[in-house]
Design a protein that fits this description.
Elements (H helix, E strand, L loop, with lengths): L2 H22 L5 H24 L3 H18 L5 H24 L2 H9 L8 E2 L2 E2 L2 H17 L6 H30 L3
Antiparallel strand pairs: 1-2
Helix pairs in contact: 1-2, 1-3, 2-3, 2-7, 3-4, 3-7, 4-6, 5-7, 6-7
Length: 186
């Protein structure tokens, strides 16, 4: 499936989940709500699974970004803590995309590497712990916190676990890009 199809599936899935949640909390709409919710969760899980199978960090990040943007769209204005967290995630994704751009140019990335401390706390497997790594780490923590919420069903937990795994996959693929950029002869 192409990127546009994946993004479209994510947008539809989040809309179905939102409609399902609203139905579950409305007398008489519980059954339709449950069906919509389940269809949305299944669709999102499939989209995230396809995204990670590409092994392309940009594709995986774009799918996650679309999911978060769509959730933000459906998030109540009154839910300031959740909205703030999602907005922060989107800002960190913007910085991560800049890292993905920079790592493609070996000369640029070698210069960038010189600007990062070489102490282990500022490195991931010896490579700069830059904005992409920080975005993935923060987002995994954000999602892991959602996993601890009581009452989430096992299907939604599976989706959250897939999203956590996707962020780890982004980092693994990105480390390979970092390795290639820093080993390349100029």
């Amino acid at each position: 499936m192409d990127l546009a199809g994946l993004i479209s599936n994510v947008l539809i899935s989040v809309a179905l989940v939102d409609r399902g949640r609203r139905g579950l909390s409305t007398d008489g709409d519980e059954h339709e709500g449950r069906l919509s919710y389940e269809e949305g969760i299944a669709g999102a899980l499939k989209a995230f699974s396809v995204a990670v199978s590409t092994c392309d960090p940009k594709t995986i990040m774009l799918v996650e970004e679309a999911f978060v943007e769509q959730e933000l769209h459906y998030c109540s204005e009154e839910d300031s803590h959740t909205r703030s967290s999602m907005i922060q995630a989107l800002h960190s994704f913007d910085d991560a995309f800049l890292c993905l751009e920079a790592v493609e140019d070996s000369a640029v990335y070698k210069v960038a590497d010189k600007t990062w401390p070489h102490k282990p706390t500022y490195r991931v497997k010896g490579f700069p712990r830059d904005a992409l790594h920080l975005a993935c780490i923060a987002h995994r923590t954000r999602i892991a916190n959602s996993l601890r919420t009581p009452g989430i069903n096992m299907r939604e937990k599976a989706l959250l676990q897939q999203r956590i795994a996707n962020m780890a996959a982004v980092q693994r693929a990105y480390i390979e890009k970092q390795r290639k950029a820093l080993e390349h002869e100029s």
